[in-house]
Design goal:
It comes from Nocardia acididurans. By secondary structure, this protein is α+β, with helices and mostly antiparallel strands. It has 2 domains: 92 residues; 212 residues, no CATH class. It has 12 helices and 8 strands. A 4-stranded mixed beta sheet has the order 5-6-7-8, sandwiched between helices. Strands 1-4 form a two-stranded antiparallel sheet. About 2% of the residues have low confidence.
């Protein structure tokens, strides 16, 4: 490189630029695009054209700078909402810089599930529900038996993900519950905990995450237990050993950070890798890994906890809390 000093500059200028998608970078790119409008026009764009909600006491007209106006409109927005706003800006106004298109392209490359979430059946605490297709064309389902033992979130799942606040609002309507969000949230929390069938390790994961609702509020992604992934109406007995039911019919926990970004948490008990006598079973383990690969290719992220992680409850709490901190930081 010392003989050809110009070569380093050429390589630097042609090398692909690393794009980091985060709340900070997307917000900065959006601000850059919106700042091209005059102060008067910007207020119209944000309020009347993009129809962004204003939640502050002082009206927008009282905010002096354009930058502050943009920030106050999008204060505390998660990454998924900022991405949606960036897409709308591209569609409605085009862009004068490269940052927004590059960030959107990188966000798309992150992967995720292509189809929107639907038919969220979860928290089963009794016999398996019997499900039929009420409308096969629209993929509308109906539970015809054992509906009382599971929950079905029957509201449209927001593109920005499913928060505990969404579940609280649904639970209030579903159960006719009265009281403030905290009272309804406690009622829902107890019902969800009941679905963990006294599994101490799963209850510990759920309890640690429940503490985050107290710390961060209810507008964070909900930790949803015992979610049906596959639904096979037949039992092992009716199918026969050689044609067994679909693997992993239920996920231990699911988090919907957005319609695309879904995180599965699994707790690996002995039955995941050993037979009924506690002897290692390579076939059983391979089947679990096969299903993991299928889920990842479908766009899900999977994180596993091992039974040994829960031998000491205090260290387990620390481990779980640290995991959720890092996961939230990564997704925000």
């Amino acid at each position: 490189m010392t003989e050809w000093p110009f070569l380093h500059d050429v390589l630097q200028s042609t090398a692909p630029r690393k794009v980091t998608v985060s709340v900070r970078t997307v917000r900065a790119a959006i601000e850059f695009e919106l700042m091209r409008h005059t102060r008067e026009a910007l207020e119209v764009v944000l309020a009347d054209e993009l129809k962004l909600p204003w939640v502050r006491v002082d009206p927008p007209s009282k905010i002096g700078s354009k930058r502050d106006l943009i920030r106050y409109y999008t204060d505390d927005w998660p990454l998924s909402e900022l991405i949606d706003l960036a897409r709308r800006i591209v569609d409605d106004y085009g862009t004068v810089g490269n940052e927004v298109p590059e960030l959107l392209a990188e966000y798309a490359r992150r992967g995720g599930v292509d189809t929107p979430a639907k038919n969220l059946i979860f928290a089963a605490n009794g016999p398996k529900p019997e499900i039929v297709l009420r409308d096969a064309v629209n993929n509308d389902i109906e539970i015809v038996k054992n509906a009382e033992y599971c929950l079905v979130y029957d509201e449209p799942i927001p593109a920005t993900g499913l928060t505990f606040q969404h579940l609280i609002d649904w639970w209030r309507k579903h159960k006719g519950a009265s009281g403030d969000d905290r009272d309804v949230g406690v009622s829902l929390y107890r019902r969800l905990m009941d679905s963990l069938n006294e599994n101490e390790a799963e209850q510990l994961i759920f309890d640690v995450y429940g503490g985050r609702y107290k710390e961060h509020g209810f507008k964070i992604p909900a930790l949803i237990p015992q979610v049906y992934l596959h639904y096979d109406p037949y039992t092992l007995r009716s199918r026969g050993i050689l044609n067994g039911p679909l693997a992993r019919q239920r996920m231990d926990f699911l988090m919907l950070f957005s319609n695309r970004h879904r995180v599965v948490l699994e707790l690996d008990g002995q039955h995941h890798y050993a037979d009924g006598k506690g002897i290692a079973d390579p076939t059983r383990y391979a089947a679990m890994m096969t299903e993991d690969r299928r889920l990842r290719l479908a766009g899900y992220e999977i994180y596993r906890f091992g039974g040994a992680d829960f031998v000491n409850k205090q260290s387990a709490r620390t481990l779980i809390a640290s995991f959720f901190d890092e996961l939230q930081h990564r997704m925000s």
